[in-house]
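Re: that backbone. C-alpha cells:
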C-alpha cells in the first residue's frame, strides 16, 4: 500500500498525494448516548433524501417522452446533423439539405 501522507515542503516527492486528496485523520468515536441521540434524525434525513431523489427521477423519467416530440421539432433546425458522405470525408454541417451528392 502506498504511503498516503502529505508533505509540507515545496518539493513534491514521487508518489505523494496532494493535501486536498489526502485521507483525513480519523475522528474520535461518539459515545453511545450521542449515537442514540443522533441516529433517528440522521435516519430521517437519509430517508427524505432518497425519497425526494427517487420521486424527482420518477417525475422526470415519465415526462421526457411527453416533451421529446416538441423538443425534437424545436431543436431540429438548430442542431448540427451528420451528413451522409464518403468515409474519407465525413463533415458536420448545419443541415442535411446542403449535403454533397
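Recovered sequence:
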Amino acid at each position: 500500500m502506498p504511503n498516503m501522507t502529505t508533505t509540507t515542503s515545496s518539493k513534491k516527492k514521487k508518489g505523494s498525494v496532494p493535501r486536498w486528496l489526502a485521507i483525513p485523520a480519523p475522528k474520535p468515536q461518539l459515545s453511545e448516548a450521542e449515537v442514540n441521540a443522533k441516529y433517528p434524525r440522521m435516519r430521517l434525513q437519509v430517508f427524505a433524501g432518497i425519497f425526494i431523489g427517487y420521486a424527482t427521477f420518477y417525475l422526470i423519467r415519465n415526462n421526457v417522452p411527453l416533451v421529446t416530440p416538441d423538443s425534437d421539432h424545436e431543436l431540429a433546425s438548430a442542431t448540427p446533423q451528420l451528413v451522409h458522405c464518403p468515409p474519407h470525408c465525413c463533415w458536420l454541417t448545419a443541415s442535411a439539405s446542403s449535403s454533397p451528392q
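The radius of gyration is 28 Å. The longest helix spans residues 32-75.
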